[in-house]
């Protein structure tokens, strides 16, 4: 089954739930405690809402992170997520 064929489910509140694959890198991975997970969030949820539901909303490293949604960079935490989106969480990297 590919990521785009995941079913939309319904939460206890009656709101549709969608699956978003989240990949964490570097310090974001350390903060999340996992490298990758699939999060179910309400349909039309934002990046900020997803991070909050994952228990990471107030983490300082995520406040400075950049995000890729399906490979497209954004710093807009109000970006709306859809079913089967892939969200990459990229904290600031050091080096040259």
TrEMBL record:
SUPFAM superfamilies: MoaD/ThiS (SSF54285)
Xref: InterPro entries: Beta-grasp_dom_sf, Mopterin_synth/thiamin_S_b, ThiS/MoaD-like
Highest taxon listed in the record's lineage: Bacteria
Pfam families: ThiS
Name listed for the protein in its UniProt record: Molybdopterin synthase sulfur carrier subunit
Naturally occurring in which organism (per UniProt): Subtercola boreus
